[in-house]
Design the sequence.
């Protein structure tokens, strides 16, 4: 199910914006001209990734310094926990839409 979650004009490049979609804590991350949606809690110890930073298509965990690929959630080399869940995003005009549901997490 697609849900409108934000206005693109509301956040600048490099921004990390927490949102709730269908009861889930997610982050919208704008990096390199694209918008990504990922789960908010780090899969390692639950750190709040909204306190992290993004650059070069990666989101850095503020707790243990592992990073995740925004495109597919892959964790940086040397870490053995699961990848970060990602969600499909559509930008239509100024509206940012995120899909959540049975088949949405990647």
Sequence:
């Amino acid at each position: 199910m697609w849900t409108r979650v934000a206005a693109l004009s509301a956040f600048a490049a490099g921004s990390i914006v927490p949102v709730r979609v269908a009861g889930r804590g997610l982050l919208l991350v704008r990096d390199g001209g694209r918008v990504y949606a990922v789960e908010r809690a780090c899969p390692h110890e639950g750190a709040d990734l909204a306190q992290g930073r993004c650059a070069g298509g990666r989101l850095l965990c503020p707790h243990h310094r592992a990073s995740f690929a925004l495109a597919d959630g892959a964790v940086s080399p040397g870490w053995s926990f699961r990848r970060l869940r990602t969600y499909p995003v559509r930008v239509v005009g100024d509206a940012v839409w995120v899909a959540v549901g049975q088949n949405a997490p990647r």
